[in-house]
Predict the structure of Sugar 3,4-ketoisomerase QdtA cupin domain-containing protein.
Amino acid sequence: MNIQIIAIPKIEERRGNLSVIEGDTVPFEIKRVYYLYDVPSGAERGGHAHKNLQQFLVALSGCFDVVLNDGKEEQIITLNKPYEGLLIKSGIWRELQNFSSGSVCLVVASEVYIEEDYIRDFEEFKAFKIS
């Protein structure tokens, strides 16, 4: 599957830790940053794939599961460390679920929002993977 867990540089000191996403932390130029928070218990986010966009997801607080599907297999990754992120390349279906109370999901993206880049129907996604 075209995903990767990437360690985010962490500076530890007694006053608290600091992590930085810059330069070559992610293998793309950052064009958009957003975050998900106050996700109600039992709610799911995502439920789509991208034709071109790449994303880097980080659990800044709490934890959540990322359900990934490449058209052949499914994999679940639990994100729960603010110093690790999940790189999701294009052409991967993703669903975010099981958000813990108070969790915050940071998303760093390779592109600005373009609706035409989204595949929001799983059957369309499977057809896209075959073509």
Notes: The chain has a mean pLDDT of 96. The helical segments are 122-130. The first strand starts at residue 3 and ends at 7. The chain is about 5% helix and 45% strand.
